[in-house]
């Protein structure tokens, strides 16, 4: 069944051989056959070839059941696919796509043999995501006909295809393969030859840092994964994704990236080597970072590392009323969250006017919830009545929990905590919402550092489910238990982490954003191509440059500087392009221009 993009009979690529019939090769064969191409599937294993055919039969049968295909469509698709264990079956192919294991020796052997089999005009594509396309092309008799064609798994569902040119690739070959990708209903992105290309080049650095974070016992595997899903809207957490990709595959990709970049952020975390050499390669082995029901299963089962239900054995302190310090969007959002959960809230700002403006903002937010049918007008009115707006922190004398959400400036926060120390009653918990500053520095500004903890909400607080709970070395156990209990009552997912720059989310997110900026700075890929690659290939809700412009380039630069200062890793140094844009006043959407220009409101 051809796609509506074009008539396959008019394409110069009518017969396509797929070499390597694992999960990816089988998926590519399905995509090609559904688009009307004649497909020759080749694998050295007869069993694997048979498995490919069975998978196609099963997939197309599901298509018929769901009404996406007719029985005739299914029969025609299956008729277009034939399999072989002999590379000579590719003799009549217009295009050969190689998706063999990630090994230069294996791939070079395939290309050398194909040189003596295929026609001179046949295009040869490698599906590698880690190895040098240039190196593979250089060993070929016709390097100008060799390029990279990197599909994403599962190929039938994922829209991104990276079309990789080497310095030897003929432009006509690139054009022909790009047109094929469009005809398949995919989104082709043109990239140069470097390990990981765009999507994996950004993705695997992030996955590596997550593995290193877990290895350092900074946070549990469950909390790291939950933080990135809930804090960034990602479809999977990084450690679960490593298990899906294969820990050994990730290690191979990272080793290739590190060999090319010598960036320590790409040096594979030792735990990847340890798991790989132990055979704990992820889902396919039944165990990796997590333990699975069976090899190949995606169902996680309990193991020795699974946290116990109700793990807090220390009882928390009673919290009936909450003080929120600040008048900005974060402060008003946090006050709304607590009031909705039934707490009496004191919302304090530097002036009565600012506090009342923040309360009015909450009223508008509640009115929108009523308009959308999310709450009744009566419930909204009761919620707003629970909030007392005040221009003095003296009114925090009665609260059991004080949460500050003032400017991200350490001296401002230290002064506020010193004031809260004098005002708040003994036993009150004092929390900071800082996203980048040391919580212990706020704690040391008080006479009761054991009562101070971090509660990092995400913006907008009413919508975002995540709270990073940040213990310092001085935080009391019952203070930690109190905040965990409060998070449960306000229906937020709490993750535990220590007091270091970036906590979980920002420590993993911002190096990824910084690396995306470096790609543009080095003219490797365009803003649009990088954003498209990460949304289509990585399942990200926003591309890195869309996100940077929303967060604010000045805010992003400040966080990058904090991370670089704390970890002293050269790879974390802010990209000069980011610094130049901030110096020019191009701060993102809020100024009308950042990486892109925006219409004035």
Automatic annotation (TrEMBL):
Pfam families, alphabetized: 3HCDH, 3HCDH_N
Similarity annotation: Belongs to the 3-hydroxyacyl-CoA dehydrogenase family.
Residue ranges of every copy of the 3-hydroxyacyl-CoA dehydrogenase NAD binding domain listed in the record: 15-193, 322-499
Listed name of the protein: 3-hydroxybutyryl-CoA dehydrogenase
Alphabetic keyword roster: Oxidoreductase
InterPro entries attached to this UniProt entry: 3-OHacyl-CoA_DH_NAD-bd, 3HC_DH_C, 6-PGluconate_DH-like_C_sf, 6PGD_dom2, NAD(P)-bd_dom_sf
GO molecular function: 3-hydroxybutyryl-CoA dehydrogenase activity; NAD+ binding
Source organism, top-level taxon: Bacteria
UniProt pathway annotation: Lipid metabolism; butanoate metabolism
EC numbers for this chain: 1.1.1.157
Main EC class the enzyme belongs to: oxidoreductase
Boundaries of every 3-hydroxyacyl-CoA dehydrogenase C-terminal domain copy: 196-292, 502-598
A biological-process GO annotation: fatty acid beta-oxidation
Organism: Streptomyces caelestis
